[in-house]
Design brief:
GO molecular function: oxidoreductase activity
InterPro entries: KR_dom, NAD(P)-bd_dom_sf, Sc_DH/Rdtase_CS, SDR, SDR_fam
Organism: Trujillonella endophytica
Largest sheet: 7 strands, parallel
Number of strands: 7
Strand content: 15-25%
Keywords: Oxidoreductase
Bound molecules: NADPH dihydro-nicotinamide-adenine-dinucleotide phosphate
Protein name: 3-oxoacyl-[acyl-carrier-protein] reductase
Number of domains: 1
CATH superfamily: NAD(P)-binding Rossmann-like Domain
CATH topology: Rossmann fold
Distance between the termini: 33 Å
Number of helices: 8
Helix content: 40-55%
Length: 234
């Protein structure tokens, strides 16, 4: 389709699968990384999404390379799990900074050019945990549910300019993030998923590509689960 796409955290995991899905359909795809470089066929920009100036520089580089960002995927994210009473305040604020404030930073940087073009797609990668809650993840769950309010507010602010803002809420996906969970916990999780397995990163990527594609032109402010049924009803 030849659009200019930017995926934060697109150097590995779900972000990489998303970047590849766009590249396969002919878009120009840039990914942020923090020093690892970009995988083959993708344009890499160094960027820590917790740094507003770094975000600005990354966008400028992307704009020079492939034109203004037409599709923004805010995917970069971290966990720093722990029970509330043992969680340090920095573990809360760092996770919110990387997962939620970063989404604000990239959306704010992308919006003016999308408004000028009177077109644009923003997709925010949240989590089923943002809707269900999760013991040991007050920081992560708060950041991920915050993305819903952020996206829905953007949908209202920017809808009149032809810009959509949607959220994808994956369940458990096979990536480094879930590989680090203890085996027993992994089996417990799978036991609660109606489809009885983790998602592949490609299954999440396909939904992100759909929301950014021509068939999703009338979808905005939606929270689309890709969770094997884990969060049904939320
Ligand atoms: P990974 O841990 O495999 O990858 C995380 C990505 O985010 C990496 O590219 C990482 O970059 C990047 N990143 C983290 N912090 C920053 C930062 N400060 N600045 C720039 N980039 C950063 O995670 P996943 O692929 O599993 O997760 C991707 C998204 O999907 C996250 O938002 C996560 O919360 C969400 N998600 C994941 C689920 C899962 O089961 N895996 C389930 C539901 C949601 P680097 O390589 O430099 O570290």
């Amino acid at each position: 389709m030849g659009r200019s796409v930017l995926v934060t955290g697109g150097n590995r995991g779900i972000g990489l699968a998303i970047a590849r899905a766009f590249a396969e359909q002919g878009d120009s795809v840039a990914v942020t990384h923090r020093g690892s470089g970009a995988p083959d066929g993708l344009f890499g920009v160094t960027c820590d999404v917790t740094d507003t100036e770094a975000v600005d520089r990354a966008f400028t580089e992307v704009e020079e390379h492939q034109g203004p960002v037409e599709v923004l995927v805010s995917n970069a994210g971290i966990t720093r799990d722990g029970l509330l009473m043992r969680m340090k305040e920095a573990d809360f604020t760092d996770v919110v900074d990387a997962n939620l404030t970063a989404a604000f930073r990239v959306a704010k940087r992308a919006a003016p050019k999308m408004v000028r073009a009177r077109a644009g797609r923003m997709v925010f990668v949240s989590s089923v945990v943002g809707l269900l809650g999760s013991a040991g993840q007050v920081n992560y769950a708060a950041s991920k549910s915050g993305l819903v309010g952020l996206a829905r507010s953007l949908a209202r602010e920017l809808g009149g300019r032809g810009i959509t803002a949607n959220v994808v809420a994956p369940g458990f996906v096979e990536t480094d993030m879930t590989a680090s969970l203890p085996e027993k916990r992994q089996q417990e999780i799978i036991g609660q998923v109606p489809l009885g397995r983790y998602a592949s990163a490609e299954e999440v990527a396909g939904v992100v590509a759909f929301l950014a594609g021509e068939h999703a032109g009338y979808i905005t402010g939606a929270v689309v689960p890709v969770d094997g049924g884990l969060g049904m009803g939320h």
